[in-house]
């Protein structure tokens, strides 16, 4: 049985949480177990920008972030949900995601399928999903579904077609995954930073055997996309000056 973690970032257990419960019911029908975490129940302090998590893999903020980040690594898939606030993420989710910035440098959720969920009283779903997609690429995970609801369809049931792609990727062999060009280019950006900026990152990437790869794992990459992403790496590599440090 596959295990999925649903993250509720709303302060209230209302529209967004109710949509998550509908998704849980539909996933349960497919023998997929869903656990919940409500971010409001955890102590998550705002990032202070000290960059210690990036340079030394430590954080001096005493809160629950390590608990949460370790928890995410134990699931086959993740559902990330948010109400739309000011045409974007909830503040609680933004603070949580800010604190995962080490995963941009040293991704730990590579190949994890993500289902994005959001509710709004009006507009903002498109911008909210776009923001989340970019962050998931930086995690090394891949967003493979979106479920958005507004006042017009808030009470609509979750259908098989809403979750089919997410479910397929939960069971799919990673070698069959086809990363899009944005994901491939983001990988190359992260690789250049690892190779030329922080030796701490470089060792991590070398240990993972990613330096010589086109993506985090063997996947179905069209030849044109491969050529474009490799060219982007070469161009960026020339432009970024190496930093001599012992981090």
From TrEMBL:
Keyword field: Flavoprotein, FMN
InterPro entries: Flavoprotein-like_sf, FMN_Rdtase-like_dom, ISF_SsuE-like
Gene3D superfamilies: 3.40.50.360
Domain of life from the UniProt record: Bacteria
SUPFAM superfamilies for the chain: Flavoproteins
Any single Pfam family the record assigns to this protein: FMN_red
Domain NADPH-dependent FMN reductase-like: 3-147
Residue ranges of the TM segments: none
PANTHER family recorded: NAD(P)H-DEPENDENT FMN-CONTAINING OXIDOREDUCTASE YWQN-RELATED
Protein name (record): Flavodoxin family protein
């Amino acid at each position: 049985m596959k295990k999925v973690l649903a993250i509720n970032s709303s302060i209230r257990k209302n529209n967004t949480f109710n949509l998550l419960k509908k998704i849980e019911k539909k996933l349960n029908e497919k023998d997929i177990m869903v656990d919940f975490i409500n971010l409001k129940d955890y102590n998550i302090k705002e990032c202070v920008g000290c960059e210690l998590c990036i340079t030394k893999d430590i954080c001096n903020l005493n809160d629950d972030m390590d608990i949460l980040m370790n928890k995410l690594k134990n699931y086959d898939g993740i559902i990330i949900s948010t109400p739309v606030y000011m045409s974007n993420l909830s503040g609680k989710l933004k603070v949580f995601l800010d604190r995962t910035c080490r995963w941009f440098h040293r991704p730990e959720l590579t190949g994890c399928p993500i289902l994005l969920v959001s509710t709004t009283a009006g507009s903002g779903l498109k911008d909210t999903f776009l923001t989340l997609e970019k962050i998931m690429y930086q995690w090394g995970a891949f967003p493979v579904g979106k479920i958005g609801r507004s006042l017009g369809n808030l009470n609509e049931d979750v259908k098989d077609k809403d979750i089919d792609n997410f479910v397929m990727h939960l069971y799919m062999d990673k070698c069959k995954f086809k990363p899009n060009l944005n994901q491939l280019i983001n990988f190359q950006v992260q690789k250049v930073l690892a190779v030329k900026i922080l030796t701490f990152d470089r060792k991590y990437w070398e240990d993972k055997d990613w330096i010589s790869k086109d993506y985090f794992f063997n996947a179905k990459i069209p030849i044109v996309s491969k050529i474009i992403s490799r060219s982007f790496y070469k161009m960026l590599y020339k432009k970024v000056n190496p930093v001599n440090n012992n981090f």
